[in-house]
Amino acid sequence: MYGGLESIKDLSKNIKGLLSDLSKNINDETLDDRQLIEVLREFLEDKRYFVVVDDVWDISVWKMIRCALPDNDVGYTIITTTRISHVAEQVGGDYNMKPLSLNNSRKLLYRRIFGNGNKGNNEAEEICHAELAEVSDRILKKCAGVPLAIITMASLLACKARNKMEWYEVYNSVGTGLENNLDVENMRKILSFSYYELPCHLRACLLYLSMFPEDYEIDRDRLIRMWVGEGFIQYEKAGKSLFELGESYFNELINRSMIQPVYDDGDIMIQGCRVHDMMLDLIRSLSSEENFVTVLSNMGGTSPSNTIRRLSLQIGQEKNHVMVQATFSMKHARSLVVFPAIASIVLPLACCRVLRVLDLDACDLSRANGSFKCLGNIHHLRYLGLRETGISQLPEEIGNLQFLQTLDVRGNAYLRLPSSVVQLRKLMCLYIDSWSKSAQDRIGNLTCLEQLSWLCIDDSTRNIIEQLGQLTELRQLSIKLDEWNDKLLECLCKLQKMQELVIECFGQCSIDGDAWVAPRHLRVLYIPNRCWFSTLPAWVNPSLLPDLTKLSITVRELHQVDLEILGRLPALRFLSLKVDNKNLSIIRGFVVGAGAFPCLVSCYFYQFVWPVVFQQGAMRRLRKFEFQQFYLRETRGIACNDGSLELCLGNLPSLQDVQVVL
């Protein structure tokens, strides 16, 4: 699946992604475009394939794509979408999408508002539909069968009472809509009405999305931290952090269909979002009108005004002079975001004294270390993103940034934080691969930290475990240990706000499950197989961990009742469970009962005694199941009479991917 193919560079990135999805392990650093195309051709040569090439902007890009997709005797289908008519004609015959019929439009509208319905209780819903039928059809006439318009209207109506008076208010407010034609301006009238229905605090958050390029996958945590840095999120409820409020803003924009969610690899948790092209056009237009965001890009953008409030730089290296020209108007800028097409740039940081957000994620700054000397003078800075930039040092003056909330310097192999980082008393989020010992020794000073990744603990830094217990605001923590330390459990007992905990240990060890009770709101617990519990800890149960979504643990002994307890965890979507010692495991099969694991999407069982039998009604949403390194010899005593092992995988209605590894 390709997406947003504006240039050959986009094509190369998409081919690499496609090869990765097809489990083709390639070293993309050593393959040029021609070699990538050849690898893909060879892979598809003897296979049936179906490919959708989405949003092609240029015919030269299409010709390159076509070279990568072989004509073969097995059979294939290629579908291309584009917004440019002459591209469609040259691809080989265009098909203009027809609008939805009134009946299908009505189905889409009602499904988005009312859901799929409860088959046992449809009478009340039918009465409701009958009352709203006339106004619904009038609204749908304005949408003219355009799915995006219908979905946008549905998100508005879902927030209203289900009576025709309120629905008519929406109908009368939208304007002429699309009933006369399908041009972009009328489509934007519907989208803009949806925008003006937003609360003020959500409008600012939505407009900020114009900082990102088209078809860009925006990381959720990164975006929320930027919102916090800009000051868009203010404390409303006691007990909720700014980040948690930002999460609720993000989810509200998804619920209103203003942004599209992007899930992680296993479709377990939302990790980011995209903005529909039509919505992004509207947001950029509104941002430009209000001088909210200035965008400079190869595809065009707004010209630098006398006063730039927020600058998004999306241009290639050949246009770096634009940055120099814009510096005269940067003295009022609150955000500067530069995207990685730009290499070896010189930053006008001395001109950005009121900057609150500086994000240079994946830009090549390996030669720009000297540019950061004036960082300590940007006293209002709240967010500093330098991930994978190639920097090797930060100045000691970074300790002067007393308002800094987020520091992200992951992916810089040679970087060591200066000791002054422990002076950042308002720091809430710290992403780092390696520490200097002088900085790590005083980590207890950072009492506002909510997210910390990674913290490396070895012989020389064991004393910091006690300091870790002082960081009682921590909600996300990732730790690397050379060997297990029981004091860590004592420390974790003090961190009762923890929601995500990842512990990687390079030495084999046993964990005392009774020495720690996980916090009630824990969502993610990931402890890989080098650390094990003797049995399933008593605190892993539905009443104590109602929000647990991802769980990866190893146990030495597993009983049927343990599997039943795990199956009752109401929010669990990912499970990786390993039985580490076959001599202590129960030498018999397991049964996953009806109704167990109601939300589970991905399941990995390691070193079980096969079979695990799935009863009808178990794991109704399971899409991926992996069974590895099971004890084949022990299964002989519990096999069927004919020697087969029946798992009843047919009872898993959503199953798409099964892997069994001996």
From TrEMBL:
InterPro entries, alphabetized: Apaf_helical, Disease_R_plants, LRR_dom_sf, LRR_R13L4/SHOC2-like, NB-ARC, P-loop_NTPase, WH-like_DNA-bd_sf, WHD_DRP
Keyword Transmembrane among record annotations: yes
Membrane-spanning segments: 590-614
Domain annotation Disease resistance R13L4/SHOC-2-like LRR: ranges: 332-661
GO terms, biological process: defense response to bacterium; innate immune response-activating signaling pathway; plant-type hypersensitive response
Disease resistance protein winged helix domain residues: 211-283
GO molecular function ontology, one term from the record: ADP binding
Residues of the NB-ARC domain: 18-103
Pfam families, sorted: LRR_14, NB-ARC, WHD_DRP
Keyword tags: Membrane, Plant defense, Repeat, Transmembrane, Transmembrane helix
Record's keyword annotation contains NADP: no
Protein name: Uncharacterized protein
Source organism (scientific name): Setaria italica (Foxtail millet)
UniProt lineage: Eukaryota, Viridiplantae, Streptophyta, Embryophyta, Tracheophyta
